[in-house]
Amino acid sequence: MTARSGFTTSPGEILVLIRSGRVRTRRELRDLTGLSRSTVALRVDRLVSAGYLRVVEQRRGGAGRPTEVLSFDETDKLVLAADLGATHARFALTDAGGRALAERAEDLDAAQDPDVVLKTVVRRFRDLLREAGRDRSEVVGVGVGLPAPVDFRTGRPVRPPILPGWHDVPVARTLADALGCPAFVDNDANLLGLGEVRERYPDVDGLLFVKVGTGIGAGVVLGGRPERGATGQGGDIGHIRLARPVDDARCRCGATGCLAAHASGAALARRLTERGIPAASSRDVVRLVGEGDPDAISLVRDAGRLLGEVLATAVALLNPTVVVIGGDLALTREHLLVGVRESLHERTVPALASSLAVVESRLGDRAGVHGARHLVVDQVFSAEAVDARLAPDP
Hints:
- The protein has 14 helices and 14 strands.
- The chain is α/β, with parallel strands linked by helices.
């Protein structure tokens, strides 16, 4: 039986409608889907009994019984989220609605042996559960962002230049086995972009998130969902070759002329050190800019112009509403953004440039864990996943 507007009688489909906020009552469900009163009652009651929905209030109208307002029951469903950068990481325990229960950030060299890093991730997740006084059985899923191209279907990195030794490592399966729940792994820029869209730009159809830290990567979010490309390598803009490279610096991928070899935090730290200004990382570059160092400021602005050069093509192809700049170098604020805007306005037609906002990340270094949570909730509580769990045993 198929209802109006392509909706089916699936309980999972009904949960998605309520989670999205499109409907909040049984009457609204009947009006939107065309389902009968008895079918809606059967499906909703099943979702309530399974712990997916709860009644949050009773609305009183005119005559007749009060109307029940339905809501996704998110407080007892926990999510473990991690955003791993090249040199530091953030871990969070939240409920499915985003309420933070425990969180920590620390330096972590992700280029270590994958087994070492993943054991650290598992330990941190268990630490967060202990700190919050919650049990692992309450966790519905794990979401992790990696500074690497990721085949989302398998949860395995794909030849990541920044993480040598991680190619084809079964990251999702390793975490799922260790924590006893589904695990999902994605490129960090995808999750950063997803976090920004869902938390700050929910009405934006097209957002391009650019992370400028040790390396450079981008996440494309269209219609509220990441666009990953055929093999998970969409958005890997750090290895686009520049038309006029600054010097012959070799990129981590082995090539010369890559954007990341000239405009990343690691590249700027190298060039400052060559000028006699010690800088070991992108954080040192940010510190020097904050102290007003003219060489650091000049290099950051030049990096912004190079970044804008590469982004101009992406803007012309995708026509996003917002370009969000995140990562360590975003902390230099207008010093980086001015260069990006300059190049974009020079290299795109006025109609595109005038409708485009280029902004600093509003969530900062918490965007990734927000995105990881949304990724888990989208996957675990999709219509297909819920219907599969509610299906009777064969």
